[in-house]
Design brief:
Layout: E1 7-11, H1 15-26, E2 31-35, H2 38-43, E3 51-56, H3 64-73, E4 80-84, H4 89-97, E5 102-105, H5 110-142, H6 146-156, H7 161-168, H8 172-185, H9 191-202
Parallel strand pairs: 1-2, 1-3, 3-4, 4-5
Helix pairs in contact: 6-8, 6-9, 7-8
Pfam families: GerE (PF00196), Response_reg (PF00072)
Keywords: DNA-binding, Phosphoprotein, Transcription, Transcription regulation
InterPro entries: CheY-like_superfamily, Sig_transdc_resp-reg_C-effctor, Sig_transdc_resp-reg_receiver, Tscrpt_reg_LuxR_C, WH-like_DNA-bd_sf
Length: about 210
């Protein structure tokens, strides 16, 4: 995934600004998609890869800050870099609290934008790597039977085989077999490794010990 092409989306209603920013970003080898409105951005097919959004704060109709909140609700997690010619401290604080990576007031130095864009793309690349790892972990967890999930939870909680056997009214041999299957399916190399995996699994959006995924 680290070799995925990176891109920048620009949303600014000023054509001259869009052209200038697109030219700057393309000059350093980035793929750029420029839009005059948030509607155009949403209607376009977003490219695959790590990217970020350079967003004007003041747009006709919906403001950039409002659009930032809308993106979160839509599950679009591109890092946002705000640009504005009318910024003030309260506005920048609001943007940063909502998760914006940077808030640049026009006129800003080209290097400041480039630095912010490169940082944003790297953050998005890390997020994509984490998402891919969690997706793989989810698939491993799906491969467990309900009994194996139950035993995984108890093993990760620190219970011994004989304790688990007593709690589930099973033999220790049966618990050992299930435990070995859990270790194999979850690709855990050791008990501490399984505990770390269990911690990650517990944060995924499905019920940890039941059959619901």
């Amino acid at each position: 995934m680290t070799n995925d092409p990176s891109f920048v989306c620009i949303v600014d209603d000023d054509a001259s600004i869009r052209q200038a920013l697109a030219g700057l970003l393309r000059s350093v080898g980035l793929t750029v998609f420029a839009y005059p409105s948030t509607e155009d951005f949403l209607h376009d097919a977003r490219p695959v890869g790590a990217g970020c959004l350079v967003l004007d704060v003041r747009l006709p109709g919906q403001s950039g800050l409002e659009f930032q909140r809308e993106l979160e609700g839509m599950g679009i997690h591109l890092p946002v870099i705000f640009i504005t010619g009318h910024g003030d401290i309260p506005m920048s604080v609001t943007a940063m609290k909502a998760g914006a990576l940077e808030f640049l007031t026009k006129p800003f130095r080209d290097q400041d934008l480039l630095d912010a864009v490169h940082k944003a793309i790297e953050l998005d690349r890390e997020r994509r790597r984490d998402d891919a790892a969690l997706s793989e972990l989810r698939e491993r967890f799906r491969s467990l039977t309900p009994r194996e999930r139950e035993i995984m939870l108890l093993v990760a909680a620190g219970q011994l085989n004989k304790q688990i056997a007593a709690a589930l009214n099973l033999s220790e041999i049966t618990i050992k077999v299930h435990r070995a299957q859990v270790m194999r399916k979850m690709q855990a190399k050791s008990l501490p490794d399984l505990v770390r995996i269990a911690d990650k699994v517990s944060s995924l959006p499905f019920r940890f010990s039941g059959a619901e995924l």
